[in-house]
Specification:
Elements lengths: L14 E8 L8 E7 L4 E5 L6 H8 L9 E4 L2 E2 L5 H7 E4 L11 H7 L12 H11 L15 H15 L11 E5 L7 H18 L2 E5 L3 H7 L2 E6 L2 E6 H4 L2 H8 L1 E7 L5 E9 L9
Parallel strand pairs: 3-8, 3-9, 6-7, 7-8
Antiparallel strand pairs: 1-2, 1-4, 4-5, 9-10, 11-12
Helix pairs in contact: 3-5, 4-5
């Protein structure tokens, strides 16, 4: 099942999970994922703590070996890609963004251009400037990244990831942005600004965005599709059809009511108590 279908996509464009066993060695298998991610769409990976969301993302990025199955990018298994070729086609924003050395914000963003050093763009300096501006950290360019707040640091690293895939690739190959909890350290306004930004990148530039999220309402507003992990299961499909009150009760054990925002986007009001017929997570 496709996490976000697009009639214009071809097999050569897709990021595919082929019976992917999600889990770490020596621990129980968390889920088996069989789905595909489509460029030009935002897909949210959702689920409770410990369901395998970050583990799945690390397998999609090639940073972790699957327990079983495989990930294919543009029809080729990830182990068949060189590290440099993969870095030119996909950028990763991890949860942990600590930097060991005292780099400035501008230097961190410039690191995103490292995979292109053999064939640099004519616009390298401009790419860095525009990436800094796109996430609202241009005024912090000369600051040490280690002196920033958590939210400022997260936006600086998002600028680095965007700089890495800033320009279209030769031959029109799809670009990918893989984000692990990109809104976790951000205030309310920056959460929406960040998700609106990556959705624009998807819709306007054809970039495939896959983001681990905890906020269901952000997923409802910005994601075209979701991959829902929980209780050893995986469901994938269009957001509104997959992320339902029944699914939330089953996966998280809480009751919710669907309402409509003033612009018509569905949102959930979540009750604190367990859903009827389900035990509390804290009992």
């Amino acid at each position: 099942m496709s996490a976000a279908a697009s009639p214009l996509s071809t097999t050569a464009d897709l990021l595919v999970c082929d019976q992917l066993g999600v889990g770490v060695p020596g621990r129980p298998l968390l889920a088996t994922v069989h789905t595909q991610f489509v460029p030009g769409r935002v897909t949210a990976i959702l689920g409770p703590n410990g369901a395998g969301k970050s583990t799945l993302l690390s397998m999609l990025s090639g940073q972790r070996t699957p327990r079983s199955g495989r990930v294919r990018l543009a029809g080729k298994p990830l182990p068949g890609w060189s590290a440099l070729a993969l870095a030119r086609q996909r950028a990763v924003l991890p949860q942990e963004t600590a930097v060991a050395f005292d780099f400035t914000v501008q230097e961190v963003v410039e690191m995103g251009r490292f995979p292109h050093r053999q064939h640099p763009s004519r616009h390298e300096a401009r790419i860095v400037r525009e990436a800094l501006a796109s996430t609202g950290v241009a005024h912090l360019a000369g600051r040490s990244v280690n002196t920033l707040s958590g939210g400022e640091r997260a936006r600086a690293h998002l600028a680095r990831a965007l700089a890495q895939i800033w320009e279209p690739l030769p031959g029109g190959a799809a670009r990918w942005l893989l984000l692990d909890e990109p809104t976790a350290a951000l205030d309310l306004a920056h959460q929406h600004q960040t998700m609106a930004l990556v959705r624009r990148w998807a819709v306007e530039q054809g970039v495939g965005v896959v983001a681990v999220l905890h906020d269901l309402n952000l997923a409802l507003r910005y994601a075209h599709g979701v991959v829902l992990l929980g209780q050893g299961r995986c469901e994938a499909g269009p957001t509104a059809q997959t992320l339902t009150p029944a699914a939330i009760a089953r996966v998280w054990g809480v009751a919710c009511t669907e309402v409509r925002a003033s612009d018509g986007v569905p949102q959930f009001l979540v009750a604190g108590a367990a859903a009827p017929g389900l035990p509390s997570k804290f009992e």
